[in-house]
Amino acid sequence: MKKTWFITGASRGFGRIWAEAALARGDRVAATARRPETLQSLVETYGDSVSALALDVTDRAAVTTAVQSAVDAFGHLDVVVNNAGYGLFGMVEETTEEQARAQIDTNLLGPLWVVQAALPYLRARRSGHILQVSSIGGLAAFPTLGLYNASKWALEGMSEALAQEVGPLGVHVTIVEPGPYGTDWSGASAVHAEPIAAYEPIREARRAGAAARAPQDPQATAAVILELVDTDEPPLRLFLGDYPYPVVEAAYRQRLDTWNAWRPLATRA
After folding, report:
1. Of 11, 49, 51, 134, which is the active-site residue?
2. Which of 242, 198, 171 lies closest to 91, judged by CA?
């Protein structure tokens, strides 16, 4: 059956790739972007199957209006994809208040506003699937990405609770956790804090590690996402790619080892 999608951040990256994949197979997509002119080629190619909407996800009123416009255009929603977001690069000490608030506004509160606007329509039909685009950085923390990690860890916690709240009402939630892909996440869309010289050795080590790692092709995720939304009982979490597995397995082993090593002290509390 054809599905109707609402996708934030559809101008480029995963949002654009998944929108194109859905449209190519005959689905309908309400595609949103800060600059709707970036969606014009989708409209030219797919016509009435696309509703191109201007949206800044940090504007709660605009989110409500965009979701209503999508429902007005297509009658209902099946898949809601919270993809809009960006990377903030900087040590915790380097990050300004403005940068920190903007990161949380976009990566956490933006998805919250979309979920709150879409759920009344999904609950009414007792169906639907919400995809929350997180990251390997939502499960493991990395130097230079502290506030980005914070935004994605918070998104993961909110989404896990959300899944328990809406599951009995017929709505599925999946937290999508990509590894490193060749999107614009660390390019033009990224924000960089003003560097403090004392952290340069740590920054250089991070750059060296990134340079040694070939990013994966984001186009390869399209078929995976289509299969995910067609699954009757989708998972709460899904990695994209192989890269996250050893990283997250090591992080969880370290946490368990630490908790258990300090259990005698913990139990005294």
Report:
1. 134
2. 198
Domain 4-244 superfamily per CATH: NAD(P)-binding Rossmann-like Domain (3.40.50.720)
Q: Report the alpha-carbon distance of residue 55 to residue 58 in Å, rounded.
A: 9
Of the candidates 121, 148, 151, 181, the residue annotated as catalytic is 148
149-195 tens-digit pLDDT: 999 999 999 999 999 999 999 999 999 999 999 887 767 789 999 99
- Give the span between the Cα atoms of 16 and 189, in whole angstroms: 14
Residues belonging to the chain: 269
Give residue 75's pLDDT: 97
Catalytic residue among 49, 152, 159, 181: 152
φ, ψ of residue 7 to 5 degrees: the values are -125, 125
As beta bridge partners, residue 173 has 130
The residue-averaged pLDDT of 124-152 equals 97
Give yes or no: 152 in active site: yes
Active site residue 2: no
Rounded CA-CA distance 45/216 in Å is 27
Q: How many CB atoms lie within 10 A of CB 49?
A: 18
Pairwise CA distance, residues 103 & 97, whole Å:
10
Q: How confident is the model at residue 233 (pLDDT cuts 50, 70, 90)?
A: very high
